[in-house]
Structure formats: C-alpha cells, structure tokens
Specification:
Layout lengths: L5 E4 L3 E7 L2 E7 L4 E5 L8 E6 L2 E6 H7 E4 L2 H13 L1
Antiparallel strand pairs: 1-4, 1-7, 2-3, 4-5, 5-6
Length: about 90
C-alpha cells in the first residue's frame, strides 16, 4: 500500500479536489512532491494525497507510475531547495 509514502511526480498529473461540495479537476505539476495520506474512504484505485496545503484524490496507478518514491526525508528537502534555486 502507498499510505504514508512521499512521491515526486515526474509528469504533470490530474487530481480531483472537492471545492464547495463539487469535485474539480486539478493539475499537479511535474516535480511536485505529494504525500499519500491514510483515508478510510480510499480504495485500490483512488488515494488521498497532500500537496502543500491541498488535499486531493489521485489514481493510485498515476502516483505509482508517474512518481518516484522519496525514501529519505533529507533527499526531499534537498530536492525542494534545488527546485527553488533553479
């Protein structure tokens, strides 16, 4: 299961966000780091992720195929600094 893992997306990926009780398509850009959250409403096809302050739902296969798992939190912070500085 992907729960409590972090992924850096290699390609832009569509997610769904609930805004004012409506599901809205939302594009998460390449390079974004998402954390898969535990969510009892998730199933094998959809997972809930946190990207910054955005809580989104994504297809689990998209996260798995389009993302690279970040196993070391220090690596994540290094990638964030590198991305921010160019």
């Amino acid at each position: 299961m992907l729960t409590d893992t972090r992924f850096r997306l290699e390609r832009a990926t569509v997610a769904v966000k609930v805004v004012h009780s409506k599901r809205t398509a939302f594009t998460v850009p390449a390079g974004a780091i998402v954390k898969v959250l535990p969510d009892p409403a998730d199933n094998q096809e959809l997972v809930t992720v946190l990207w910054g302050e955005h809580k989104l739902q994504m297809f689990a296969v998209d996260v798995d195929v389009r993302g690279t798992e970040i196993k070391d939190p220090e690596t994540e912070h290094g990638q964030l600094r590198k991305t921010a500085t160019g």
